[in-house]
What we know:
21 strands
Amino acid sequence: MKHILLTICTLAFLFSCSKEEQVPAQTAPSLDFSNAEFYQSLPKQKSFFQKIDKPGASGSGDLLVLNPDLTFQTIDGFGLALTGGSAQVMYRLEPVKRAALLQELFGKNGMTVLRISVGASDLDSAVFSYEDEPGTFSLAKSKPDLIPLLKEIIAINPAIKIMASPWSAPIWMKDNYSSRGGSLMEKYYVTYAEYLAKYIQEMAKEGIPIWSLTPQNEPLNPGNNPSMYMSALMQGTFVAKALGPVFEKQGIQTKIVIYDHNCDHPEYAIELLNVPEVRKYVNGSAFHLYGGDISAMSQVQKAHPDKDLYFTEQWTGAKGDFASEFMWHMKNVIIGSVNNHAKAVIEWNLASDPTYGPHTPGGCSECLGALTIGGQEITRNQSYYIVMQAAKFIPPGSIRIGISAPLGIQAAAFKRPDGKIVVLVQNEGAKKSISLGKQNIELAADSVLTIVL
């Protein structure tokens, strides 16, 4: 009887495991290395995406187990936030130089998702909304730089996906009548939903389709400028009674993505998706990683497997160490978020000037852009290489597939639309050997290796 009970318990445990916990027994035999390509990044040497010969090892190492038959989410892409400040410094570049930079960023093997703010974020030179006085809606404050820059980007990649996030409602709709903190007054819920709908419609008239919208950036952070507090109950009520119905009535197809804040409160998204009147309007939820653990995204996926997940913000700081930040973001943001079901991965600010501006009074004063643009000089920083490490090799439409990595190794694998398999492998420690299929591969110390099969 004891043996039978043990067998039943074992079977129950196996069937209770998620797909990711079911490690395949052996590497798929169909891996073909005959035309394999290897690209190595060594952040301490600031050497990235260098094509190398197969880094053969003298002996076998720990197994990296790949299972192409085990499939997860389809990838929408990788990108950065095009803040108003980013657009301002980028638009000062000479047209020929700007065109070359945009081609590098958004052309073939470039970024395929962008996040922009509805009105000002804290990385704009001043605080504003698109309707600072009731009945005066206008995109005019974004027409000198953000809107023309978006048009240039769309001309390069018409399929780019643009996510929009408001940092605050117009202050006349808020209970403290301030750009910082406060909450949206309930009497303005429908008015604010109509404001967001108007924004999407007016951007469409400019030739800029808004793919998805979060109702509030960092709803639990009322200390930024601009910012607005929006509890889970507030956001649920807003979506169910205002935003969802307004979008439905006006035929707006933009996806509604809830939460858009840290991994320390997955219950915010779970509780909203538990409410039928909310979930029927919601495509998924979005996360940052200034608090909590990236595995929180999988908690939401387990509770609501039919809803999508996105990673939408993580900064690199002015005082950060280049190599350390690159490796941390690769582990947690790129590999970590996709392995926890993120369909898109978006880092923070695309560009800043040498003083980490522009920013609002009280806005982030140490946010390092992926690019530093001083005059006509362009410097590529950590976030550029973090995002491009994935974007160069994993296009939209790629499907994440099963992989199991040994201790000390972070890895993610994808099957691309062209049928090729991409394996992203990070080694945070000393030089070591791994075995993938029948191949022994040496990983350099503190490196990222991209394998294309």
